[in-house]
Amino acid sequence: MSLLDASSHRRLNPLTGEWVIVSPRRTARPWLGGVEQIASTPAAAHDPDCYLCPGNARANGARNPDYRGVFVFDNDFPALTLAPSTPDVDIDGLLVARAEPGCCRVLCFSERHDLALPRMAVPDIVRVVESWRDESARLGALDGVDYVQIFENRGALMGASNPHPHCQIWATHSLPNEIVKETRAQEQYHARKTSCLLCDYLALEQRLDERLVCGNAHFVALVPFWASWPFETMLLSRRHIGAFDELRADEVAALADILKRLTMRYDNLFGCPFPYSMGFHQRPCDGGSHPAWHFHAHFYPPLLRSATVRKFMVGFEMLGSPQRDIAAEDAARRLRALPESDGSVTPGA
Ligand code: H2U
Ligand code: ZN
Fold it and tell me: Rounded to two decimals, what is the model's pTM?
């Protein structure tokens, strides 16, 4: 069932229960709107003005150690604290507020200011994945922490405040909105079918072979049928595991491998350091066993036509439903055709 040549339609995201409008080939319309700056890869391995490089002073005056490899620290400007003093508020069910205990960490991928995931060596990315696993376990065990969200904003276009390759980790007391939706959908599917939503979805995608991008022994990258961002992808573990704490050593290595390969493809799409927000979705750490939960990552890149023309999620997307301009199958075909090389290449067609 190919919808590549279909006219406009909507597709269901079974993980959230939300719909996305698909308008294939709408990129043919003229564009006189905003053009972004082409980001360049930082040239220097160490930048004396970077808050995150080894040995440098951070914005609040603390000094980074002369670290090598992964460096994790408490965010100096955290969005959440472990003991907030906010009282609960509920006025007529209309003005409702709750204290939100939590903590925020920053994780630098390595001492190298110039090496993002696509340019790092796989063994060095393995150290990053191991740190994600360790931080998830440590923060998840804290009193009052029910969820650990690991995410990377790459590129100024996606709000990264610093080009030094890094990600953030937010541990929260309540489940974030996306996790509430995904938990509900996976549990309902599990109850209805006595099987896992994402195991079944992955099996279907492998059979249809229309939206797969790349894979290895333990992970698959694909453009989800319901993708809303132009080159959105999902990373799925082949094994039914719920969270970082279940990753075996060979799966840690495979996750590092596929992260490098997928991000190299992204960089090669428009011949630029490809901006995105990505993050891992894992089972809540609230004491429940959550057998329906399937570990995965989402990549949400904003670029649409080139290194300088992005997709705006505004207007109808903000007020109604998300809408995409190229079919998911088309995006997957383009990503699949790209080389996995970290040099600069001719931008993809
Ligand atoms: P983003 O690039 O995704 O914004 O992540 C960087 C985080 O690093 C950001 O949350 C923190 C910011 O608060 N930070 C510090 O904790 N100390 C600094 O000296 C600079 C930035
Ligand atoms: Zn740096």
Answer: 0.94
